[in-house]
Amino acid sequence: PCLPCHSGLAPATKLGPRFSPKALLPIPEHPLISTLKTQAQDLIAELNRVDWPKKEKVMRYTWSVVILSILVGFYLWAADLGIAKLLKFIIPTH
């Protein structure tokens, strides 16, 4: 038996003198816990309503970002190289 009341014995003989029937009542939920549960349910509901893009569209946009990032990197590298050479021309070091 999991509880003293199931075995027919007096509760004090199994759980000691501090046992009270109130201990078996459900613990009231903390407001923070209920708020988190509500937020999680709302999040799942919202994610189910999202119109997710197809794989082809995601891949196309991903490759666009990769190519654009490489082009910007080359541009910044060339600009840095040009500025460095210009500064070496303007301010010679011996």
Mind explaining what this structure looks like?
The chain is mainly alpha-helical. Helix content is 68%, strand content 0%. The protein has four helices and no strands. It is elongated and about 90 Å long. The chain starts with a helix and ends with a helix.
Topology:
Layout: H1 4-7, H2 11-15, H3 31-49, H4 55-90
Question: How do you describe this structure in short?
Answer:
By secondary structure, the chain is an all-alpha fold. It has helices spanning 4-7, 11-15, 31-49, 55-90.
- Counting DSSP E segments of at least 2 residues, the number of strands comes to 0
Please give the largest β-sheet: none
Count of individual helical segments: 4
**End-to-end CA span:** 93 Å
Strand content: under 5%
